[in-house]
C-alpha cells in the first residue's frame, strides 16, 4: 500500500542551502555540528530535532509530533528544580531560614526561623555609639534627596497640579489653507488663510474623570514566631470544656422550634458563670453588728445616767420635804399655848 509520503516527488533543495564544504578545513569538535542537517522530506520517520542546527534556520517540522522550539521561540523558562540545597550556618547546623523558610517569599523579606531570633541581643559600646557628624550629615543629605525625589514624583503625577498642566501643554500650531469659496467679498479679498491652533486650557481643579484603583501593598515582614509546646492528646474533659452551646434567643423563634428548658439555660450561659460572694458582704454585716452593739451600749449608759439623775432629784426633794416638816414641828412646839 502506497502512502502519501511515497507519492510525493523528492524535495530538491536550492543550491544556496547546499554549500560545498571546503576540503582543506580541519576536522574538529565543531565539524559534526556544521555537517548536521535535517533529513529530506519523507525520510524523517523516527528522527527528532535535538539542536538549533537541525532546524537549518527555519521553522518547525509539522510531520514530527514533538515539542519543537526553533530559534528558541515559545520556550518558557527552564523548570526550576524543587530540590533544595542543604545549607548550614556558622555553627554547622542546618540553616532553615536561608533554605526552607525563605522559599517563595519576596526579596528582602525577613524570615525568623531560628530560636536565636527570640533571644535578646547584647550590643556593645561600639554598636550603640552615636554616629559621627560626617556620617549624620551624609545620611541627612541622602534622606533629603530621596524625600525630594519622592515628593516631586507624587506632585508631578498628582491630578490638578500646575506642573502637570504646564508640562502637557503643547505649543501653538499655524495652519495655512486656501478656502474653496474664496472671493473679494470674503475675508477682505484674501485668497489664503492662516489658523492658529492651540490646546484648550485644562482646569487644574477639575475632579478626575477616571477612578484609579490603588494596588494593595504586599505583606510586611512576619513577626518573631511564638514557640508553642508540643501537641497533647485531647481528653474528654477538654472537649466538654470547649463545647459551645448553640445560640438560642429568648425573644425570637422564627421557625417555631420547641426548645427544652435545659437548652435555654445552657444557651443563657448561667452555668458557665461561677457564683462568687464578695468579702464585702461579711465586712458589711460585721460592721452593722458592731454599730448595733455600740449603739445598745450607749443607750444603756444613757438610761443608767438618767436613772441616777432621777434618783438624785427624788432624794433632794425628799430631803427638802423632810426639812420643811421638821421646821414646821419645831415652830409648832415653840409656839406659846393659846390663852
What can you tell me about this protein's structure?
- The structure is a single chain.
- 0% of the residues are buried.
- The protein has a two-stranded antiparallel ribbon with strand order 1-2.
- With 339 residues, it is mainly alpha-helical.
- It has 9 helices and 2 strands; from the N terminus they run H-H-H-H-H-H-E-E-H-H-H.
- Helices cover 35% and strands 3% of the residues.
- Mean pLDDT is 78; it is low at 13-35.
Task: Produce a short descriptive summary.
The chain has 339 residues and is an all-alpha fold. The chain is 35% helix and 3% strand. The longest helix is centred in the C-terminal third of the chain and has 56 residues, at 279-334.
Question: What secondary-structure arrangement, pairings included, does this model have?
Answer:
Layout: H1 4-7, H2 31-35, H3 96-99, H4 125-128, H5 133-157, H6 162-167, E1 173-177, E2 193-197, H7 236-241, H8 261-268, H9 279-334
Antiparallel strand pairs: 1-2
State which percent range the strand residues make up. Answer: under 5%
Mean pLDDT: 78
Number of helices: 9
Alpha-carbon distance between the termini? 202 Å
Please mark out the parts with pLDDT under 50 across 5 or more consecutive residues, or reply none: 13-35
Strand order of the largest sheet: 1-2
Please tell me how large the radius of gyration is: 56 Å
Structural class: mainly alpha
Shape: elongated
What is the ordering of alpha helices and beta strands?
HHHHHHEEHHH
- The helix fraction, in percent, is 25-40%
Give a quick account of the main beta sheet: strands, pairing sense, barrel closure: 2 strands, antiparallel
What's the total number of strands? 2
